[in-house]
Specification:
Blueprint (H helix, E strand, L loop, with lengths): L1 H15 L2 H15 L3 H4 L2 H11 L4 H30 L6 H24 L3 H24 L8 H26 L9 H36 L1 H37 L5 H23 L2 H8 L4 H13 L1 H16 L3 H26 L1 H26 L6 H24 L5 H21 L5 H4 L7
Helix pairs in contact: 1-7, 1-10, 2-6, 2-9, 2-10, 4-6, 5-6, 6-7, 6-8, 7-8, 9-10, 9-15, 9-16, 10-11, 10-13, 10-14, 10-16, 11-13, 11-14, 11-17, 11-18, 12-13, 13-16, 14-16, 15-16, 17-18
């Protein structure tokens, strides 16, 4: 559903509206996202862990968490409006719709955790795509339907609101039916216990969100809405691509946690994980970086050359981001917050400085560069710590094979671009297909991916 939303609906909205109009929406959306932690504060993970161990806990937890999330929503509104006022964002009515949308989405994710904790995985899967399906339907009517409703950012956010509201009601009804003796009381001690347990995870999430989302806000404030709208074109694509790494980390977290709990050798799962993500990185970055001009011409109607330049820098971010989805997940499983929190705090400070200097100099390109430099800093620190902590040693033979694999992949995409020098959709699809096949075969030839890796036993039973 995510690709359909990004490349179908979101892209169409960007093309139909001016970059400046979408740019202010992108900035406000990123701004409200900075305070997202206030809507959850680890409640989803806490609830999922507890209800999964004993479904009867839902009777006590559901009412408490519903009340607590309502209180958090009030704090979220106060924080958003207070900080939005000096930035001038309170002048836009869609700010309040976006705030409600974030609240409903947070509630939906929490309520779904009750469904998955009861092991109703089919129901949970259907609920996970329901909001996006409804959003695609409502927004498609708004964009292409023969209605008298004009496509504006306010109407765009309202269409999302209707989709979230319907999904929220359905999720709430299902969750309430899962309980049998719900106790609508609030326990202050229980709430403080949840906060204390979840605080390190919440702080880490907040810091990562800040240095990953603040660029859109700073860009809009320093370079204006048009520049932000151009930045959003490439950012939305890289955001969609990052879901690959996120899904990989979701799989890895319980595996790493199991290995740590059983005192098993983490190298047995770390190296194969890095191999897999490396192949994904080479495939994705090679595909988009060396075809950035053609891709942006295909997707967008204006400022294509500049959009391609910005996107070229943004796609490079997937190199550190992809690796961090493995290394960061490992540190999270080990609960290495003494390393993570200071590193992330410094990353936030560096990101703000980089953005201030580079946006002033290069606008949207500078914002993309600032994000890349920040991600590389975090990757460097995490890598050094894990290298020393696990007493890893460099295998020069494998390093050489990696370099040859990357070199061959780059050469192949450059050759394909030269051979099929046509910006049409068919040509891009043909090049991309050939390239992905070459990357896969090369990974097998150089031993990056092998039979043992593909049939890797995690040890979890």
């Amino acid at each position: 559903m995510r690709p359909c939303w990004v490349f179908g609906i979101d892209r169409s909205v960007q093309n139909k509206l001016h970059e400046s109009e979408y740019g202010i929406y992108f900035a406000v959306f990123n701004f409200t996202y900075l305070f997202q932690i206030l809507l959850d504060f680890g409640l989803q993970n806490y609830n999922a862990r507890n209800v999964a161990t004993d479904v009867r806990k839902l009777n006590d937890l559901l009412p408490n968490i519903l009340l607590f999330k309502t209180i958090l929503f009030v704090l979220y509104i106060i924080a958003c409006v207070s900080f939005a006022y000096p930035l001038g964002y309170t002048n836009f009515s869609f700010l309040y719709v976006i705030i409600i949308n974030h609240f409903l989405l947070s509630f939906i994710i929490y309520l779904r955790s009750n469904v998955s904790a009861h092991q109703y995985f089919v129901t949970d899967s259907l609920l996970s795509v329901l909001d996006k399906l409804l959003m695609i339907f409502f927004c498609a009517l708004l964009i292409w339907g023969k209605t008298n409703i004009e496509l504006t950012i306010l109407n765009f956010t309202l269409a999302q609101l209707f989709a979230y509201a319907i999904t929220f009601i359905i999720c709430l009804i299902i969750s309430l039916r899962l309980g049998d003796k719900l106790k609508f009381t609030i326990s202050i001690d229980k709430l403080f216990s949840i906060i204390k347990t979840s605080a390190p995870y919440a702080i880490a999430y907040f810091l990562m969100t800040t240095y990953y989302r603040i660029d859109g806000v700073m860009l809009e404030q320093m370079s204006g809405r048009t520049e932000t709208g151009i930045y959003a074109q490439g950012y939305r694509i890289i955001e969609s691509i990052n879901n690959i790494g996120y899904l990989f980390s979701v799989i890895l977290l319980p595996i790493f946690s199991y290995y740590i709990a059983q005192y098993k050798n983490l190298k047995e799962i770390l190296f194969p994980s890095l191999n897999i993500i490396l192949v994904i990185i080479v495939a994705v970055v090679g595909l988009f970086y060396f075809q950035a001009d053609d891709i942006m011409k295909l997707l967008y109607h204006s400022n294509q050359a500049y959009s391609a330049k910005v996107f070229s820098w943004l796609i490079l971010n997937f190199i550190p981001i992809g690796l961090l989805y493995v290394l960061g997940t490992l540190l999270t499983a080990k609960e290495s917050f003494r390393v993570m929190l200071p590193t992330l705090a410094i990353a936030v400070l560096l990101n703000i400085i980089f953005n201030y200097v580079l946006i002033k100099k290069s606008g949207a390109v500078g914002a993309a560069q600032a994000t890349l430099f920040t991600q590389l800093f975090v990757l460097f620190v995490y890598s050094i710590y894990i290298f020393k902590n696990l007493a890893l040693k460099i295998n020069y033979i494998k390093v050489i094979k990696m370099m040859l694999f990357i070199a061959l992949s780059i050469f192949s995409i450059l050759y394909l671009n030269y051979k099929f020098n046509d910006p049409s959709f068919f040509s891009i699809a043909l090049r991309s297909s050939f390239y992905l096949v070459i990357v896969g075969i090369s990974a097998i030839i150089f031993g990056i991916i092998n039979k043992d890796l593909l049939t890797l036993e995690t040890g979890i039973r």
